[in-house]
Design a protein that fits this description.
This protein has 826 residues and is an alpha+beta fold. Helix content is 27%, strand content 23%. The protein contains 23 helices and 35 strands. The strands form 10 sheets. Strands 13, 14, 16, 17, 18, 19, 21 and 22 form an 8-stranded mixed β-sheet that branches. Strands 7, 8, 9, 10 and 11 form a 5-stranded antiparallel β-sheet that branches. A 4-stranded antiparallel β-sheet has the order 4-5-3-6. Helix 1 (36-62) runs antiparallel to helix 2, helix 9 (320-330) packs parallel to helix 14 and helix 11 packs parallel to helix 12.
Length: 826
């Protein structure tokens, strides 16, 4: 007799310590009715099993955290039923008593059995015990035991755990302390409750969800203990799986199968409009023949700074430009797009300029000139097109001159500033660490290895890499660990921690750059599961490639910039850059570092590691009712000539249409005020030290917020004092309420983009009704003979109010009010 068909007796241990052999009773009426002894034994066993489960459930319910508990108080029971007897499953539910069958799954240790997990409200905790008692003591009119269809088919009952709700391969269940991305299947209408408890537990969740009639699927990063606390304190979770959006599955399938996936998506692509924004890649060329790229790139939009190089990607650069193109066009959504059957509208197009030779390297002294030529080619081809330039090409910097402008970085700054003509938005990578990395080196080596050339430029958006790639599903790497915790810095991302404080904060922001894995013995490795899926430059060989590090992050940042420009075509490049920075937030992993960094100096170090955090496209494009954002684009004349001396001319005072009544109603409730100021400087490079007469930047701009009890005259006096202090190189003095800024002026005022968050109560904020933007010195002022003292300075100012802990509509009261500004002579 085979193992699967063999019927073994079950041995049940009773309370008196004796045991009794019990063979599963046959079902049916009349002569086939179960003997009374077996019926009673089965009932007693189930009573004891349910009793133990209910006792454990009561312990869980009594230990619920009142600050966390949400939804209906209840617990999960896991029933074991023979796979051939699943007809009993429908009897496990009872809508009237709100008892719901949430999971049915095969039991890995017993192939002939299934586990059925049921949510039971506390108010119905005796439901199944009563069913067993009725089965034991009562018969139906046909002389069958009552509830026999259900009870006689139950093999075992126990309290449900996290593993009970886990329906994936058991081998993928994480070790207790390792955080992973869970695919959380929520019960109907439970997402808000789930969000409440995960926020209190500081469990990171993705904002997106997939909705079905009875389930809503979200992603949450947690270890087993955190997910257990969610389950014990709420009734939201119905099922758990491992999030599987990893590239490895697409590399495991045959090339012919990859073609089928790609062809299916290609048929669903809708080309971008005639006047669509473009991402212009300055890279190694692009293989436009790839079916997923040709729809977003015209042949006329492929260029090369040297015609003999051709325009196509090359083996020498391992298809870097083509991999960048896939991410620029599809962001990190390619796997999701391949998996659906919906049409995909391309909202922007691609351009390519090959700035790298087909083999070998460019001469270092030509980097700036080649970049300038690369920028000019697409502008000649399509002069009216709005575009963002994406460059993930870098070179090393002498560590002794870290942060000092180079000819290449100055050329990039000049291209962005463009001598008063239309500005250009350029997005540049921070560069990667290339030596071996061991777990003990992580973050230490990142803080030591500085941003690469031309990342010391002031005007472009400089992008580092973070990672939330923490799920390893490939069985070839079973037992391996990820190097970076979820939400922390990507292992190869460089920083400006070692730069002197006068140089810009770099990176500005961080985007996904993938992770690395290690086996506990050797240095960390890049594996498919921890990268992003993109397009391969030789589609005749295979369709897909993987992408990671700061190149990957730079492509994603360019995608976000193009989306903002597509939605708001009138925004200046300074504004688009500001929106990306303003929308950024530090992840929980980053915030944990900041929590122990009590001093402004410690925070400056972390700022130079993570920039302003991880941007969010949805936050950049819209305001919620309790998250009000104002965007101001303006200009001022920083300097003027009087009595043959260049003096500071004006500042701008922006009166703010605060919803004062709404804020005052909130009283002592905590609120946040976030301000981001963005402008481009005109560069003046040269190694002449950092004396004020030899400054690199043409000018600087700063912002200050009027104090709660401050008059306009007092506010103006304080700004004039701050201007003098900065120009004389002194530490800027602060008033008492300026201590509420997270970074403060001495930390945030580096480079040409400044962002900070003020924390206080609503009543205080209601009185802070003005923001001043004012100039500080630069070579426009100090070098009178260059005749730039009469130039205008454009800037973008973004202001947000957030009420994080209460529901308050602060958006509607000012939705139709436009902020006004007046020029004030200084």
């Amino acid at each position: 007799m085979s193992k699967q068909s063999r019927e073994l007796p079950h041995i049940y241990l009773f309370e008196n310590g004796t045991s009794e052999n019990y063979t599963r009773p046959k079902r049916g009426g009349g002569a086939n009715s179960p003997p009374e002894r077996n019926r009673a034994a089965h009932a007693k066993y189930l009573e004891q099993a349910i009793g133990r489960a209910i006792q454990e459930a009561r312990k869980q319910l009594n230990s619920r955290d009142s600050k966390l508990a949400t939804g209906v108080s209840g617990f999960y029971l896991e029933f074991e039923i023979q796979a051939k007897e699943t007809i009993a499953l429908k009897s496990l539910e009872n809508q009237q008593k709100r008892i719901e069958l949430v999971v049915v799954k095969k039991l890995p240790e017993r192939e002939d059995m299934v586990g059925a997990i049921v949510f039971v409200p506390e108010s119905s905790s005796d439901y199944f015990m009563k069913k067993v008692e009725e089965y034991r003591d009562k018969n139906t009119k046909t002389k069958k035991p009552k509830n026999e269809a259900l009870i006689s088919r139950l093999e075992n009952v126990q309290i449900g755990k996290v593993t009970s709700l886990f329906t994936d391969n058991p081998a993928l269940f994480p070790e207790d302390e390792r955080k992973i991305w869970w695919e959380v299947w929520l019960r109907k209408d439970k997402r808000e409750e789930f969000n409440q408890i995960t926020q209190k537990l500081e469990i990171h969740t993705k904002p997106h969800a997939i909705s079905f009639p009875e389930r809503e699927i979200v992603l949450a990063m947690s270890d087993v203990e955190g997910m257990a606390r969610v389950i014990h304190n709420s009734d939201a979770v119905a099922e758990l799986r491992i999030a599987k959006d990893t590239p490895s599955m697409f590399f495991e399938i045959a090339a012919s199968d990859q073609v089928q996936w790609v062809n299916d998506l290609e048929k669903r692509l809708l080309e971008p409009g005639k006047h669509a924004v473009s991402i212009c890649l300055l890279d190694s060329g692009v293989a436009r023949i790839h079916p997923l790229l040709s729809s977003g790139m015209a042949l006329d939009d492929m260029h090369s700074v040297e015609p003999s190089w051709g325009v196509n990607d090359s083996v020498y650069w391992r298809g870097h430009g083509t991999a960048m193109a896939g991410l620029c066009l599809y962001s990190d959504s390619l796997i999701a797009m391949l998996a659906t059957s919906e049409k995909v509208k391309l909202l922007h197009r691609l351009e390519s300029v090959k700035i790298l030779p087909h083999t070998g390297q460019n001469e270092p002294d030509l980097y700036g000139a080649i970049t300038e030529q690369g920028v000019s080619l697409p502008e000649i081809q399509a002069p009216e097109r709005r575009r963002v330039f994406c460059m993930a090409v870098t070179s090393s910097i002498d560590s002794s001159n870290a942060g000092t402008p180079s000819s290449w970085s100055a050329a990039v700054d000049q291209l962005c500033f463009n001598d008063g003509e239309f500005r250009r938005l350029m997005i540049v990578s921070a560069g990667n660490i290339f030596q071996e990395i061991f777990p003990k080196d992580y973050l230490n080596i990142n803080d030591l290895e500085t941003i690469e050339n031309p990342g010391q430029a002031w005007n472009p958006l400089i992008v580092g890499a973070c990672t939330e790639q923490i799920n390893i599903l490939d069985p070839n790497y079973a037992g391996w660990q990820v190097l970076a915790p979820g939400g922390d810095l990507s292992p190869r991302s460089r920083t400006s921690v070692r730069w002197d404080s006068q140089w810009p904060i770099r990176p500005d922001v961080v985007f996904e750059g993938g992770n690395m894995a290690f086996n506990g013995q050797n240095s960390a490795e890049t594996i498919d599961d921890l990268c992003l899926l993109t397009t391969y430059y030789r589609p005749n060989v295979r369709m897909f490639d993987r992408m990671n590090d700061t190149s990957c992050a730079t492509a994603l940042a360019s995608y976000m910039a193009a989306r903002i420009m597509s939605e708001h075509s009138h925004y200046r490049p300074e504004t688009v850059r500001a929106l990306i920075v303003h929308s950024a937030e530090w992840t929980p992993a980053m915030q944990n570092h900041f929590k122990v960094a009590s001093s402004k100096t410690a925070r400056r170090t972390l700022l130079r590691r993570y920039g302003y955090g991880v941007p969010d496209l949805r936050r950049a494009l819209q305001s919620a009712s309790n998250d009000l954002t104002l965007i101001i684009e303006d200009e001022l004349q920083p300097f003027y000539l009087e009595a043959n001396l260049v003096k500071t001319k004006e500042m701008k005072l922006h009166k703010l249409p605060w919803p004062s009544e709404e804020l005052e109603k909130l009283g002592e409730e905590k609120v946040e005020l976030k301000i981001t100021l963005s402008y481009f400087i005109e560069p003046n490079p040269g190694e002449r030290g950092w004396a004020y007469r030899h400054r690199y930047a043409s000018h600087g701009l700063r912002f200050k917020v009027k104090g709660s009890l401050e008059t306009d005259d007092d506010f103006k006096w304080r700004i004039n004092q701050a201007t003098r202090e900065e120009e004389e190189g002194r530490t800027i003095s602060t008033m008492s309420d300026e201590n509420n800024w997270f970074l403060g002026p001495n930390t945030r005022d580096s480079g040409s983009i400044h962002s900070d968050i003020w924390h206080g109560n609503a009543v205080e904020l209601a009185q802070k009704d003005a923001i001043a933007v004012y100039p500080v010195g630069g070579w426009w002022k100090e070098k009178k003979y260059l005749n730039r003292w009469n130039q205008m300075a454009l800037y973008s100012l973004i202001i947000s109010i957030r009420v994080p802990e209460v529901e308050a509509d602060i958006y509607t009261p000012v939705s139709n009010i436009v902020s006004t500004s007046i020029a004030i002579d200084t």
